[in-house]
Amino acid sequence: QVQLVESGGGLVQPGGSLRLSCAASDNLFRISTMGWYRQAPGKERELVATISVYDNTNYSDSVKGRFTISRDNARKTVYLQMSNLRPEDTAVYYCNLQNVRGYWGQGTQVTVSS
To answer: What average pLDDT does the segment 12-22 reach?
Structure first.
């Protein structure tokens, strides 16, 4: 069973930055697409960004140019660098590992407010 542990969430003012991390417990990480998703209150979970084993990245239009996803295979960790944060970025952010099946982390809260 793969475990994913997110960290780095918190409260930040509009225009600020945060970096989320997600550490995987299994070497499956190295051959899997990794992603970040988010879910705001009353809304469905939505894709934020993904990164393939070849470092190909994909972003939702709402975060393109502000967020950067990256991975460190040696550390089995995926990152989400978030800049120029907006109140509408407030959500629980989830890490996802996608291989034959998908695995999810427990989520980390990001709140953007003045």
So the answer is: 98
Give the closest residue to 90 by CA, choosing from 31, 2, 9, 36.
Answer: 9
DSSP string, 29-42: GGGSEEEEEEE-TT
Q: Tokens 């975060």 label which residue?
A: 63
Give me 5's structure tokens: 């542990």
Q: Has residue 84 got a pLDDT over 90? A: yes
CA distance 63 to 35: 14
Locate 54 and state its tokens. 């070849």
**49 CB burial (10 A radius; 0-12, 13-18, 19+):** buried
Q: Each residue of 87-103: b (16+ CB within 10 Å) or e?
A: eebbbbbbbbbeeeeeb
Q: Are 16 and 113 in contact (CB under 8 A)?
A: no
The Cα-based distances of 103 to 26, 34, 66 in angstroms read 11, 10, 26
